[in-house]
Design goal:
single chain, alpha+beta, two-stranded antiparallel sheet, 2 helices
Amino acid sequence: MQAATQFPLLALVIIALGIVLVVAGLIVMATERTEYSEMRPQSKGIVLIGPLPIVWGFGGKAQRIALIIAFLVFVICLMLVLM
């Protein structure tokens, strides 16, 4: 029973660690000495909407790899649901 009571504490520690990492990242970004005119915003990602993977922001070969990974994630999720 003691292990089951420690899960909420572990969850809170993980959440607190995530918050600390986000704040640390914001502080590092704020203190960098780069010219904002040199920065170009970029986004890359994969969104799975049902069985349809949507991939953007990658080059040719990387886009195919990301699409294959997205498809494999979909197949694994489908197998877990059907079991």
